Amino acid sequence: MKRAAALVALLFIIPISAAAQTEAPGFRADAIASLKATAIDPTTWAPAGAWYAATRLDWNSSQVFFRNGFVEGNRFYTVSGLPNSTPISYEQGNRQILMTTLAVAADSAVNNWTCQMIERAAARRFPTHRKLVKALGFTERIAFATLETIAIGTAAHYNQWQLNTSRAPQLAVR
Hints:
26% of the residues are buried. This protein has helices spanning 2-22, 24-40, 42-67, 90-125, 130-151, 154-170. The protein has one domain (2-170). With 174 residues, it is mainly α. Helix 2 packs across helix 4 (90-125). The chain is built from 6 helices and no strands.
């Protein structure tokens, strides 16, 4: 997913960069405006926020099982890097969650900034269709945020959290 997003971004940035050489002042203004728009756009932060919340709930609810000898099924959180193995420390898990959250936010920010740049260029090129250009840009950002949230497995962590909270009392694990 990250490689595909980077490739798509490059395909759009190269023509924009070439145009920037002939219209440097407009490009700089667009870049700054796009950066501001990206920073306040909820689709920039939603996937990272959903990932962080889901993985924290899963990680915190799993700790009671680890204290009672259970293994971790997610290889991302094991010492060996293999599934169904010894879990990493709570602190290391927190660091991994934070680093992944930052990477997800960066992916969204790159996509949204690129989309904003393309949207501005398209609005100049098609001034009679500004609403359509804006709607298409917003649709792309929403679709990317949704697909990224799905691709990183956020729902699986929410599901695991629910499973952990329902199983802990049944197993008399404290």
